[in-house]
Amino acid sequence: MRSNTKGDLSYNYAIDTERFKHTSLQMVVGSNVDILFHAFFADVIVEDGAVTGVVCETKSGRQAIYGRIVIDATGDGDVAFRAGVPYWQTKADEASRLNDCLMYKIAGFPEDTTAKGCIIGRTMVVWGPSPGAHNGADARELTEEEIDVRLAVYDDLEEKKRDAGGQLDGAAVIDTGALIGVRQTRFVEGEYRITGEDVLEGREFDDAVAMAHVFAIGEAAGVAGARCCTTDRTPRTLDVERLQATLIEQGCEIGQGKRR
Ligand SMILES: Cc1cc2nc3c(=O)[nH]c(=O)nc-3n(C[C@H](O)[C@H](O)[C@H](O)COP(=O)(O)OP(=O)(O)OC[C@H]3O[C@@H](n4cnc5c(N)ncnc54)[C@H](O)[C@@H]3O)c2cc1C
Question: How remote is the CA of residue 183 from the centroid of ligand 1, in Å?
């Protein structure tokens, strides 16, 4: 069953990625953000134990960029890693459960298909070939896995078609993810590491700033960074209650309903 019901998290829906790119760029440009595309983070600038800037490789050569706050948005903690921040990684025997894969988009299937995937208009996003357990923070391993999954895409669709008993007849690949989807690499050691017991017990934390999905975590990091700049504080000394209040004002769900 497919559902458009709010709160139904059964992997039945997807967003229009092209519209998302357009809208998010429009919002950033409209906010007067100084953008530098095609810049690859290469190193950190550390002063008195704090990251005060980054060095990037760009089309114009190496550039140093300073900021009052640096937010590591590399997904893999590249900035934190280069700054020597303690971190841990998923153990090899756990990694096979993560199902990293190259997701891709298909079109041309029957309109009333019941095949599994996230429908967006007349297209569908499906889970693609998986490289199995690997270290996504290792450049050589990541390259090998990226090659393997890309070369396996068309065979993967043929297999899906065979399994779908006609529900995917006529389907063709129309897009693949820009990068192989890696779920876990480095985890930065924070002030507290949430345990399995915390999760099973449903423990609540007074300093929560986001719930579950990654957009929320990113929004909390961005707002916290902005508040550090306007209040001249460091992330560690930021007033968490004020931060939570700002996030709630912005419509974020940070568990306030549960804690009330
Ligand atoms: C198959 C799969 C399915 C998922 N499904 C869901 C889901 O349904 N719901 C959910 O909430 N989460 C889901 N996730 C997790 C979610 O996709 C990630 O947690 C999320 O994308 C992380 O966002 P991010 O912006 O932190 O990092 P990313 O999305 O990884 O973005 C990091 C960006 O930084 C760039 N970058 C990396 N290193 C550098 C560098 N050194 N210099 C410059 N740029 C760099 C990368 O190119 C990339 O554009 C899924 C993940 C996978 C793999």
Answer: 8
Query: Residue 214 is part of which domain span?
Result: 192-260
Domain assignment present for residue 21? The answer is no
Same domain, yes or no: 207 and 250: yes
* C-alpha of residue 100 to centroid of ligand 1, in Å: 12
Q: Which contiguous run of DSSP H or E holds residue 216?
A: helix 214-231
Q: Are residues 107 and 152 in the same domain?
A: yes
Structural domain includes residue 118: yes
pTM given for the model: 0.90
**One domain, residues 113 and 144:** yes
Question: Considering only CA atoms, which of 207, 235, 213, 214 is closest in space to residue 223?
Answer: 235
Query: Ligand 1 centroid vs 260 CA: distance in angstroms?
Result: 32
From 149, 176, 203, give the residue that closes a domain. Answer: 176
pLDDT per position as a tens digit, 199-257: 899 898 999 999 877 788 999 999 999 999 999 999 999 999 999 999 999 999 888 76
Closest protein CA for atom 53 of ligand 1: 181
In-domain check, residue 228: yes
Q: Which residues pair with 46 in a beta bridge?
A: 51
